[in-house]
Amino acid sequence: MNKFDVIVIGGGIIGLATSYYLLKSGKKVALIEKNEFGSGASCACDDAIFFQSKKPGINLELTIDSIELYKSLSDELGIDLELENKGGMVLIEKEDHLKVMEDFVKKQKKFGLKVDILDRRDVIKKQPHIRKDILASTYCKEDSQVNPLRVMRGFISKSKKMGLEIIKNNIIEIKEKKDGWKVLLEDKKTVESEFVVNATGAWASEIGKMIGIDIPIVPKRGQIAISEAIPSLGETNAWSAQYIVTKIAPELDRNQNEVYKRLGIGFALSQASTGNYIIGSTREYVGFNKKTTYEGIQLILKEAMALFPIFSKVNVIRTFAGLRPASEDGKPIVGEVEGKKGFYIAAGHEGDGIALAPITGKVVADLINGKRVRYNIEELNLKRFKY
To answer: What pTM does this model have?
Structure first.
C-alpha cells in the first residue's frame, strides 16, 4: 500500500518525534529516510535540554513544555531515556559579560524561569574544579539532559509497533496533487498522502526546492570531543557565557579572537551516564562538511582546560561533528507552508533539536489534526521571512 495520511521526510529526532505523535493521534504514517536514522545532527550532538540559552518568548516556552513531555516518554516508549535534572551553570569570566547576563537573567525570571546569579564562592561550591578566579555564573536547577540515541531508539521501536512504515530511499520528486501529495522515490516507486512534513534538518532547503519554495536553513557544523570516563567534576553541567553573550549582545563580539569567531567556539560541558564528558563545541558555516578538524578540537579542549584545569590530565577518546540546521533568525520553522496546502515544515532547530523534539512533534501532529495549539505558532511559520 502506497497511500498514507502523512508522509514524514527525515529520520532524525524531529522526524521521529513527529511520526510518533502522529501515530499516537491515529494517523497512518510513512517515514522516508535516505541514510541512517539520526545521521545529520541527532547522533552527533550533546545531550542538553538547556533553558538558560533561550530568550524569553516562544523558544523558552516550548522548552518548558517539552521537558514535561520528556518526563512521561520513558514510560510511553518503554525505554530509559536517561533523563536527568542536574541543573546548569553559565560560567562568566568577564565584567562586561556579567552585566549582560545579569540583565538577561532578570528578563528570564520575569518570564517565569527559576534562574539566579551566583558569586565566585557559590560557583566553586558547585564546581570545585573550576578555575579559582572565575567571576560568577548563572544557575538554573531546571536545566536537564537526555540521551538522544536512546530517545531515537525508543521512538523507532514504539512507532514500528504502532504501524509506522519506514521507507529507506532517496526522494527524486515531490508533486502537489488535487487531494494531497505524491512523492517519487529513487527506485521509481511512489507514495501518496494528504500531508507531508519536511523534517530534514540541515537539508530542509533541498526538499523545499522540490516544491518551489525557499527555506532559509543552512548547515552549521558542530565539533565535539568525548573524554574517557571519569568521576563527576561538579554538581551541574556547564556552559561558557561567551556564546550566549554573542547572541544577545553582538556588539561585544567585536573584540573576540578572529579564529574563535570563525569557528564559533562556545564551551559546553556535560557528563553522560557512562561517566564520559561531552565537550563542545564549534558552530561553523562550512556547508555540508562533517569532518572534524585539528584546529576546532584543539580550541574546544583549550577552553575546557582554561575553565577546568583538571582536563589537562584527562584523555580524549573520540571526536565527531554534526550538522545543525540553522535558520536565518535562530528560531525553528514549524507549520504549514502558505500556498502549499498540507505541506508542513518542522526544521531549523539548530542546537535545540534534542530539547524541542517532543513538543515539536506534538505541535505538528496537533496542527495536522486541526487542533488549536496554545502558542503563537505563526511566529515560527515560514512566512515570517517574507521581506
So the answer is: 0.95
Mean pLDDT of the chain: 94
Give the pLDDT mean for 237-261.
80
93 and 155 assigned to the same domain: no
For residue 160, give Cα distances in angstroms to 38, 82, 156, 231.
16, 22, 6, 38
Whether 88 contacts 237, CB under 8 Å: yes
Q: 140, 146, 139, 141: which is closest to 45 by C-alpha?
A: 146
pLDDT confidence tier of residue 36, bands split at 50, 70 and 90? confident
List the CATH number of the domain containing 136: 3.30.9.10
Give me the amino acid identity at 154: G
Measured CA to CA, the distance from residue 62 to residue 27 in angstroms comes to 24
- The pLDDT tens digits for 348-372 are 999 899 999 999 999 999 999 999 9
CA atoms within 13 A on the CB side of 191: 26
Co-location of 240 and 129 in the same domain: yes
User: Average pLDDT of 149-176?
Assistant: 97
Q: Is residue 306 part of a domain?
A: yes
Number of domains into which the chain is organized: 2
Who contacts 210 (Cβ-Cβ below 8 Å, separation ≥6)?
171, 173, 174
CA distance 40 to 201: 7
Last residue in a domain, options 298, 327, 356: 327
**Which domain does 111 fall in, by range?**
88-141+218-327
Cβ contact 89:119 at 8 Å: no
State residue 258's pLDDT score: 86
Residue 9 lies in a domain: yes
Residues 164 and 313 in one domain: no
Cβ–Cβ under 8 Å, residues 41 and 323: yes
pLDDT mean over 123-144: 97
